[in-house]
Each structure stands twice: as C-alpha cells, then as structure tokens.
Please model this.
Amino acid sequence: MAAERTFAVGIAGATGVVGTTVRGILEERRFPVGELRLLASARSHGKQLPFQGGARTVAVLGRDSFAGLDLVFFAAGGAASKEFVPAAVAAGATVIDKSSTFRMDPAVPLVVPEVNAAALDGHKGIIATPNCSTIQMVVALKPIYDAVGIERVVVSTYQSVSGSGQRGVSDLERQSAQAVAGDDVTLDFYPYPIAFNLLPHIDSFLPSGYTKEEQKMVDETHKIFADQSIGMSPTCVRVPVYAAHSEAINVQTKRPLTSAQARELLAAAPGIEVVDDPAQLLYPTPLQATGRDPVYVGRIREDPSVRNGLNFWCVSDNLRKGAALNAVQIAEELVRRELL
Amino acid sequence: MAAERTFAVGIAGATGVVGTTVRGILEERRFPVGELRLLASARSHGKQLPFQGGARTVAVLGRDSFAGLDLVFFAAGGAASKEFVPAAVAAGATVIDKSSTFRMDPAVPLVVPEVNAAALDGHKGIIATPNCSTIQMVVALKPIYDAVGIERVVVSTYQSVSGSGQRGVSDLERQSAQAVAGDDVTLDFYPYPIAFNLLPHIDSFLPSGYTKEEQKMVDETHKIFADQSIGMSPTCVRVPVYAAHSEAINVQTKRPLTSAQARELLAAAPGIEVVDDPAQLLYPTPLQATGRDPVYVGRIREDPSVRNGLNFWCVSDNLRKGAALNAVQIAEELVRRELL
Model:
C-alpha cells in the first residue's frame, strides 16, 4: 500500500479565532498535514501552539513565508490577504482565503462545497470562502434551489459577536460583567453597547443604505449559485450571543413545495441537520449549535402570504461552518479532485 | 371655568410590570384621575404604591372590585381578564384590556390610536389593546399603507424578555450573572437559556408550525387595518435584551415609494421618530428606545429584489407603546371622543 500523500500547510493568522479553529479542525478531521507552518503578526512571534500532540512555533507572516507550502489558509484579515496572498501563490501554494478581498474576482472560485464544489476545477491558485452569514444560508437553500428553484429570499440575521473577532467577543464579555455588577458599560469595538442590546449594523454602510455585510449576502449568493436572478433582501443584525449565527429565512420558490417536502429535502441534504419538532420544543438555538459542524434548520413552515412561500430558521457556528470548517472542507475537496 | 372632569380609574394587575407602567404613564401624562383603585392578587393585598405624591393601597382583585369606576385597565393576564372583565363592564366601567382574550371578538375594538382610533366609536364596554409586537409594526406601517397601499409584509422580530413579564426578566438577570461568574446556568421560565442565546419561540406553537405570537401579528394587523388582504409573514424570536422590541420589516407596497419618500412619510407620522443617518451611525437600538415613547424607525432602504420593495428597522419599548402607553392613549382618545 502506498503511503498517503501529505501536504505542507500554512495558516496565516494562526493566533486569531478563525486560525485557531482551522488548526483544531485540521486535527479533528485528520487532514493529511505533513508540515504545519503557523504564521501571524510579529506580536505572536515565537509563541508555541499545540498540534497533533506536539507544539508548533509561530513565525512572522511575510512575503517570504511560503516557500515549500502546498496550501495556505488565510485568516488574517483583508489587509494581510491583499498584501500576502499573491506572494503565497507566486511561491506555488494554493490559497484558501477567508477575507472578502478576492471573493468577487471572476478568476477566483467562491466555494461552499455542499453547493458548488465543481467551481474549484480550474482554479488559479486562490479560492475564496464566503462570508459566514452567506455560507449557512446557501447550504440551507441549496436543496430547495435544486428541487423547485428560488424566486426570492428575505433574510434577517441574528449574528454573534465572534463574527467580529476577539474585540467583539471582549466587548460582550466586559460589558456583560459591567452590567451585571451595576457598573457603567465601556465601549471599545462596537459604537454602542452590545450587551443586552442589538445593532442593526455589521461592516460599514454603503450609499444604498445597505451595509457591506448585507451586500455580501446578495453578491456572494448570486456568485455561488451562478444565478443573478435570485432576489435577495437581507437585514444583518449583531446580537449579544458569543458564537453561532441565526437567520430567519423567507423563501419564495419557483414551483410549489410543502413544508413536509421541504423538511424531507433539507434532512437529506449534506451538511444540514433538521431540528424541527415544535411540539417537543425542538428548534435550533445558537447555544446548542456552538462548537458543532452542521447547519441546523428548524421552524420549517409554509408562508401563505405569497405564492410558494416558505419560512425557516437556520443556525450554525460562524467560526466553524461559517469560516474554518468551510475552508478545511474546500481543502479536502481540492485533495479529492486532485487539484492541490 | 368649569372644573375638568375626572375619572375613577382602576388598574387590575397593578403590581405587574405593565400595571406599574400604566400607573407611571397616567401620572406623566396627567390623565384626569379622580380615584385610583389598585387591584392585584391576594399576595399584594395592602401593599402601598406611590401615585401623585401620595400612596395608594393595593386591594384584592375580585368580581366586586369595580363599583363606581369609570375606567379599568386590565393587565393581570388572560385568565384574570376572562374572569373579571365581564364583572367590570357589568358594574358600568369601560375596560381597556391588555390580554389577548377579547382581541379577536368582533364586538371589541382592537385599537392603536395612531392607526384606527375611529374603531372606538360605538364600543360596548371593552376595548382591547394589541400584542406588543403588532403595535409598533402597525404604527410604522400606517403612513405607508395610507400613501401607497401594502401588498405584503415579511417581519422578523427581536423581542425583549420584559415581554414575558417578571419571570422572563429574572431568567435573563440570573442567567447572565451565572454565566459571567462562570457558573452553570439555571432554567425557570424559558425552556432553554436566554442569556447569550436566542429562542425562535414566543407563546405556544400552533399546528401550522407558527407560534401564537406570530399568528397574533397576522390576525391583529388584519383587524386593525380592517383589511384581510395584507399578506403577513412573521417570525418571532426572543433575544437577550431587557426592554424594547426590534423588528426587521420588509414591505411590498401596492404603488411605488422611494426610500426618501418613505423617510418623509414616516417622519411626519404621529408616534414615530425616524433615526436614520447611517453615515453618522444613527439607527435605533433597543437600549436607546428603553423608557421612551416613540416607535423608532431607521435603516430605511429600497428593496430591489421585488417590485415596490422597502426594508426598515423598527424599535419601541414594549412596556410603553407596546402595552401601557397604548392603553393610556386609548383612554385619552375615549375622553376626547366623549366615550367614557
């Protein structure tokens, strides 16, 4: 028996919340890692991080960091991707980039493996992984799209602070403790308190009145389904939850679909777990989804207010399927397709 | 000058969160209260509560509590309304009832004064005030409905725990403190933790898969606008916020309306305050709306995914406009119309 091929893997942004989760998921899923090179800013230089029972030392991310790597996961933010991804590709690595930098580039596949794995074929060295709020939605929409077509989607999100990275998490932790103690709440990352509050504001505002986060849900969905005709109307809201994003999704399908048929389709689809038994008070919640892989779907019900209307509630861990897990699944698919 | 007429007023459920707010708002708005009779369960018998610089003693709510009263606010829950409202009406009082008991009774006006005050004319002794999530939505929809008609509404709510009463508030307080301290979270009112979590579940589930809370938003909107043709698709979600409900509202109007026109209409409408300047990070949040009277509207933007589409974000204090304030405004309107 031939020895399994292994890959030299880099993680740029290895000390951040997504980079840390990528490392964990590579281990959990036994991705065939040969070398693992952890890259981060100078601040983390020399830091030791565990992997496969040993420790790996963090090196400083730079243009010369990539020699010999087969694959680099980028989760170091948009500016770092812009600066260093071209160098990684030039050094011969394939990059799976978590930032929004390359997502809308026509030469870059934007991939959710359950939805459009075939878009990986013929990649040119960069593959983008979509925004967290888009990923879980398109996984849930995919079986419906394939079965009966989709006319229009109205989606309201309930997004956790981990989507903002460590500073968002710190704001919620600190402000919650302050509020519980009866102290004044202090601001850092968010412009208003997030503890016991909601902000209908994620990423910056565009002249249209939509936020960039909302526009991403529109543009990325069109690109992933390769279908500009899907009507998309998103409202993105930050909520005082640590992990897992939730979405109230209203779909108008092209052809009729009963809620029972939808439940069956969704339950059979890859990456989805249906939790939908209201009589037993079973429905997805972000606390239950935290740390887990599936996209959870519940509250599936017909919407009689429109022809072929359907409502459901969709919850998934934004650090896992919404970021790190999707990136590792892309890597697995590249291996399967012999594209690495 | 003739002395202003005063009214003998009762509050049934005077020690609850809504009853307490009714008492405060009667005082704030200088409603012409002559006698004030505070009624509650035996547990609160003899309790002293402040009003207009003095103290009033709580009496036990019973069938013989109402002699001599002109007006009784009921905020003691559905069972108490069912048991005691008929006695109050028989004793000659007009009842403004906060519970859902009589809302869909064709003989009972269901009133939001900014929307359908004229429905009060010819009342038969009972007036119902709608569900909190309905009230703020219909206030915001009214100017749009009048100007261009409404085809369909898709609404996702973000509802605070005060809508569940004191036990909901206690769950969030206790669980937040437990979580901050690193202790296990204990359950009481809600079936799952509400601290740092979301529950897509308000009131009980119907066979349709919708909750009663969601069905109320459909039925009450139809009754208040006296228009069954408005398509309504609600998803109601409990969020870890103490006060003020938020709603992401997507409207398809019958005739075109630009976001600028919508902003103008909403800003000119009674009961609404537009907070909508994204460039200055101005949008409504529940913390800012807490303790205030208006229905706040922001994030107003056209929805290009459908003909005549519009999105906005609507926030209001569910204990005030969503309950106590709306009830007192109904009383004021009854006085104005000489219907008391």
Chain B touches chain A through 56 residues (CB under 8 Å).
